[in-house]
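[agent] plan:
  1. take the single chain provided in the ticket
  2. run structure prediction with default settings
  3. attach structure tokens to the ticket
  4. add a short note for the reviewer (M.T.)
[agent] executing step 1
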Amino acid sequence: MSGETRTATGPLADRPTLAQRQAALVRALVAGDAAPAGFDAGDLAATAHGLLHKRAEEVRRRFPHLAHAVGADFTARYLEWARTRPKTTTVGDAAAFARALGLPDPRPGRARPRWRRLGR
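[agent] step 2 finished; step 3 output follows
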């Protein structure tokens, strides 16, 4: 059997693998794809919404100056932006969100005001 690849035959041959089903679930949660068979679309939408809010709070907590610069509607604006973009990292999300709004890069040591660099 070494070196041989086993393939399913019969009625199971057309079924998606576990990995394919898991990937479909993740895409439904974070990329807006349709709910896979066997999952309630409403439940998945609620979970996806919760994940987006969690993502927004991570950025708000790590980059409070960015949240302050965006203003009181930070969460709404972030959710609108993030809904169509898969998460990379919290730092990457914050930088891309700031760039999309035309704000300075919020990462430490980036786009620092000139007066802050003079003392170094």
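[agent] step 4 note for reviewer: The helical segments are 18-30, 41-62, 64-70, 74-82, 90-101, 114-118.
[agent] ticket updated
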